[in-house]
Amino acid sequence: MSQARLMDGTALARTLVADTAERASALTLRTGTTPCLATVLVGEDPASVTYVRMKQNRSRAAGIESRHVTLPAATTTGELVGALRSLSADPGVHGILLQHPMGAHIDERAAFEAIAPEKDVDGVTFASFAAMSFGLPGFVSCTPGGIMRLLDAYGVDPAGKRAVVVGRSAILGKPAGMLLLARDATVTYCHSRTRDLPAVVREADIVVAAVGRPRLVRGQDVKPGAVVVDAGYNPGNVGDVDFDSAVERASLITPVPGGVGPMTIAVLLEQTVEAASRQLGVTGAAPGGRAQRIQAL
Ligand code: NAP
Fold first, then answer.
1. Which residues line ligand 1 (CB under 6 A)?
2. Domain 31-116: which topology?
3. Which residues, listed in sequence order, are joined to residue 37 by a DSSP beta bridge?
């Protein structure tokens, strides 16, 4: 069998960000208000500082204003909730991103729930998860949203397919499975207690690996012709799929890096502009509503 075609997340993210920048600029011209994303960081974890800076830079480049709130590592849950509530009530802020994970002393759930659902552009609140699960308007978790965009862009229709999601975290595996289910896939979740993971993976027409274990999914377990999406990102730029063997059996596969990774920020920016549009009373195309097929890639 010939090698799988690569799903190029870098190129798709570029298209999506360019589209978003156009929308941001049109919205600013029309309303006199620039879409604004507030980022909130507790403490100074170097990786989190880098992620937040990247999100701010990419926002600005797309014509989205960026407001940053840094809180000391010793911030209590109550203080963080207070800061998030005031951003939620601030009409000049349209989207809120709370960088996580945070210190163990913080009640992460209480903090997330202080984000107004209409500004939850990272899709972390109960309301966003429920809306996504019921197929109602709202904001999705950005990485799973990015995965669905990649599938759409490469013409993969999940309807009727067996989808196996390896990993069930609240921000990645679980919502990825819910989005596939909403698109009529038959979804199986695998996790650390799954018996005989390879046997389950062998059934999959679509495999989503979201585990955080380097090369856990082996090519020999990929059904010939399956679509393989690797959301994993491990030290040394290694994914959760053994790329070299999986590329020989899959029909489509995401590389690491350059597959799922770049899509996350692209979806965050798109959802920020969508949030601003809704809050400013300007209705446009909803995220996912526009054709994003990039067959030409
Ligand atoms: P997580 O919260 O640690 O969750 C890992 C999941 O994998 C859990 O559900 C766990 O099962 C399951 N798991 C662990 N070992 C397993 C095994 N041997 N067999 C089957 N399942 C196993 O991780 P996460 O936040 O979802 O992230 C997963 C990966 O995606 C990481 O590599 C991370 O860096 C990457 N990631 C990438 C992006 C991006 O591209 N932008 C964004 C987020 C995360 P239990 O539930 O039973 O513990």
1. 143, 166-169, 171-173, 190-194, 197, 210-213, 216, 231-234, 260-261, 264
2. Rossmann fold (3.40.50)
3. 66, 95
User: If 0-12 CB within 10 Å is exposed, 13-18 middle and 19+ buried, where does residue 181 land?
Assistant: middle
CATH class, range 142-260: alpha beta
pLDDT in tens, 126-181: 999 999 998 898 999 999 999 999 999 999 999 999 999 999 999 999 999 999 99
Which amino acid residue places its CA nearest to atom 41 of ligand 1?
Answer: 261
Q: How far apart are the CA of 172 and the centre of ligand 1, in A? A: 8
Rg of the chain over Cα atoms, rounded to whole angstroms, equals 19
Q: Do domains 31-116 and 142-260 have the same CATH topology?
A: yes
Query: Which residues are catalytically annotated?
Result: 55, 99, 122
- Measured in Å, residue 40 CA sits from the centre of ligand 1 at 23
Q: How confident is the model at residue 2 (pLDDT cuts 50, 70, 90)?
A: confident
Q: Looking at the whole model, is its pTM more than 0.70?
A: yes
Instruction: Give the DSSP H/E element, type plus range, for residue 209.
Output: strand 206-209
